Every structure is written in structure tokens, then in C-alpha cells.
Please model this.
Amino acid sequence: MITNKLTIFLLGILVIFCACKKDDNKNIEIISPGNDPNFTIVAHTDAGYTATNRKVAVFGIPIYAYSDVEDSKLLHTANIMAQYLDNNEDGTVDNVTLLTALSTNNAALFMWKSESQISLNAQDLGADESIISWHTNGHTGKFDAAIEEVWHVITQTGYANAYPTVFGKNAGTSLTNAMDIARGGNFTTIPNPYPADAWYTYDDQTCEYDCMATEYIYWAMSSILGAQENRLSEISQEWDLNTNTLIQNTDSAIYSLLTDPLYMFPTILPDGTYMQ
Model:
């Protein structure tokens, strides 16, 4: 009798255990690895980013995504970052000093689907702002914002820390000295109006001096690479030099910096097809 009762008791425990395991399995989210030949989407529990459910690492730099961000957008952004960092696509990052600065300073980007998700301490990119087709539509139509937001990560956290006297965002660096020329003077607040001879006239009142430097190096680099050639009517309220030739002929200070082989800046505009 005692043996029968013990057997029934143990069977009861086994049933409860199995039921609990079944419930636990229901709560496990399956993360698709994606279909990219070079990058894999993985689940994560990284501190500070637990609101997102997955990530892709590019040379160790994480790109996080909320659950409703499409895998295609996440992988596209990873490819853009890889092409910026390994512009000749030989599988090795071009500038080790830059990568060290990015890693040491915890560079990261997160992708969101709704603006209520913009609450993490990193550069952000809206999934609906990343337009993969822009690259195959002759660089026309709605712009691929991944070109801009990924570049902000690389310059703000990377170049600014790797070469602080050159690409630092404070006044007096090589970058901000060039920016002051482009803006027609050293302004800590937005001039109204900008001097007539200024070609960089960003007027977002929330963008302070360091932010102005971040936007300036983006406009200059993306124009040198050809991203802005068809966009002058969209961007002229902020930036006039939308081609490589215009920058070379007008803003020689920034052109010299961004084409100096010492810093190994990209020479080819990323299109989201890294090593493909």
C-alpha cells in the first residue's frame, strides 16, 4: 500500500514537472537567424537593451532591434555598418584604431518601429526610415536613413574618440574649425539668419554645437560618397554642397580631412550588400 501511494505521489510530481516545462517552453521566443551570408540574428540579454529582443554584431558592434522590426531591415543596417567599417570588403576592418574606439566606448545602435520605443541610450534608427530600395532605384525616392544613422555611430563614438584633436566635437578641433568656416563663423547658438556666404545652415534649435559637428561630418562624407547628388531640393535648407566636386572646390578643409589616407575613411557608398 505504501509503495502504491509513493508511486502515485511520484507520478503526480512528474506530471506537474512536465506541465511546468511545457509552460516554460511556451514562453521561449524563437529568434530566426535570418538569411544573410555574413551576419546572424541572435537573441540577447544585454544590460540596457532588454526592451529589444535580438541583435546582430558587426565587428563586435551590436545593432539591436525591437520585436516588430523586420529582419530584413536589421540585416540591411548591419550590412551598411560593415561596408562603412570594411569599405574594401576584404573581411577585415579598415581602421583598427577606429574599431578600438568604438568598442571601448560601447558603440551601439538600436532599431525601433514606433516612436514610443525611442528610449534607449544609443543611436537610434527607425525601421520605416531605412529604405532598402533607395539603393536600387538610382538613389531616388525616399532616402535610406541607415546611411546617416549608422554613420553617426561611427563618427560620434568612433572617430571623435580615436582622434579627439582632429574629429572631436568641441570647439577648436580640425573638424569644428572647418565647420565654423562652413557656417560663416563660430556660433554656439543658431544664427538668424546665417551669413550669406555660409553653405552649412542647419537650424534645428535642439542641436547644440557638438550636434552640429556630427551633422556636418555626415553631410560632408555622404556628399563626397555621392549619396546627396539627387537630393539638393530636399536638403538645401541645411546643406548646399551636395556633390564631391562642390565640396572639393568649396570646402577644402573638410575635403582634406575626409580624404586623408591616415584616417581610412570610406571611398565607396554602402549599399547594404556587404561581401555579396
Notes: The chain has a mean pLDDT of 92.
